[in-house]
Amino acid sequence: xxxxxxxxxxxxxxxxxxxxxxxxxxxxxxxxxxxxxxxxxxxxxxxxxxxxxxxxxxxxxxxxxxxxxxxxxxxxxxxxxxxxxxxxxxxxxxxxxxxxxxxxxxxxxxxxxxxxxxxxxxxxxxxxxxxxxxxxxxxxxxxxxxxxxxxxxxxxxxxxxxxxxxxxxxxxxxxxxxxxxxxxxxxxxxxxxxxxxxxxxxxxxxxxxxxxxxxxxxxxxxxxxxxxxxxxxxxxxxxxxxxxxxxxxxxxxxxxxxxxxxxxxxxxxxxxxxxxxxxxxxxxxxxxxxxxxxxxxxxxxxxxxxxxxxxxxxxxxxxxxxxxxxxxx
Length: 329
Fold this sequence. Notes:
This protein is mainly β. It contains one helix and 24 strands.
């Protein structure tokens, strides 16, 4: 904690010396009660969770033409040490061009329930070019090799191109995502280097946000189909969001069909917001598994607090009571 205080003090001093905007987000995650494999653990602090296990901070600085975010926490190592977990940096050499470096997260459309649903995403580490050649049109060229080289012996790594065009009838998008060919220790292909081609659409209808995507996976032939649908809206104090996705893959290495769904339903009471989160990853799976998570969000001063009862219903049902405290300034 002393290290984090020192980092914030140094950042505040730097912000006063240079014409930059600074912000920071701190988060602490833990568990009041967790039952797993018939073992009860109290006041557990998950240390292996990337994105800040016990203690984490995102420190952001931005100026007119550049900015960066440094992500610190102890999600990897645990203990009392503060570790580097990632960085994001951007520069804007021209009004129509923005260059992003470091942690990347691109998608035609992504649900806002837990921000995990996307059928055409390109993430990991790398660099990307955001181009807006004309009003309404955005093109993203993404090269995200992770920690490896983008090209090795002619084998091109993860690459993606996105295009979106906003009109009065909604936003239309298209994407191409290329995965590299991967080989196992015996020289056999682990993945075929598939090409994913996707079309997407999003709009707001009288306060209701809607998007839909459809994708095909191509190797030498069509080896998979993906689709998703998202709806989010509210009626007075009641809010709802529902996401459904479909995946069918048969490429000689994997043969699977999956239909998943999740939803979050909230009720804004002013001082607090109770919610119910429900998720089934695959209705087609042989073994049933569902997550049911009622919870509540509220504020204590400038701190946001969340507490819930996270129940996983499967062959072995587990109960977790997680909590989170966040502070933005």
